[in-house]
Specification:
about 170 residues, alpha+beta, Aminopeptidase, 8-stranded mixed β-sheet, 4 helices, globular, Acetyltransferase, transferase, GNAT_dom
Length: about 170
């Protein structure tokens, strides 16, 4: 029987593997950029951050794994607006186009709707990443009225991006 990809919360004991995954993802994709890439985190610091995230209603971190191997990651982090979380997702290139990114985002949106204190989840996506734009639209994200913007890739290239938002419906009683 073959193993299935699991979408789950990472364990604090996986902090070193998670840091390795994040570094590999940044090297494989010009659309995935770590916000604090210059501030390298130790495995112990990452483990403590994972523990804190697990107790937050505004932060989420999920991983996709196959056995003990981490294949992808999805996060929701609060923005300066506080009530809006920013979504980030990346999957190792060997596992692209297998539904893993969709499963990660779908699970993150379920958390946002059922367990978070957020009013919406937003993201910035490069317009040249057509597959990602289609995925987000399929999952219920809508383009905002904000004009397109220019973002800088890890290689320093200037590319066009749009803002998208997933409004969270209040739970009905």
């Amino acid at each position: 029987m073959s193993e299935e990809v699991a979408i789950r919360l990472p364990e604090a004991t996986e902090s070193a593997a998670l840091l390795t995954l994040l570094e590999q993802l940044q090297g494989e994709s010009d659309t995935f950029v770590l916000a604090d890439a210059a501030d390298r985190m130790t495995a112990a610091q990452e483990a403590e951050q994972l523990r804190q995230i697990q107790h937050s209603s505004r932060h989420l971190l999920l991983v996709a794994s196959l056995g003990r191997e981490l294949l992808g990651v999805c996060s929701i982090s609060p923005t300066t607006q506080g009530h809006v979380g920013e979504l980030g997702v990346a999957v190792l290139q060997n596992y692209w186009h297998q539904g893993i990114g969709t499963a990660l985002v779908d699970e993150a949106l379920y958390w946002a709707e059922t367990a978070s204190s957020l009013d919406a989840v937003g993201l910035t996506v490069q317009t040249r990443n057509v597959a990602a734009v289609k995925l987000y639209e399929k999952l219920g994200f809508e383009r905002t009225d904000m004009p397109t913007e220019t973002v800088t890739t890890a290689e320093g290239e200037q590319v066009t991006a749009v803002q998208m938002v997933f409004p969270i419906q209040p739970a009905s009683d």
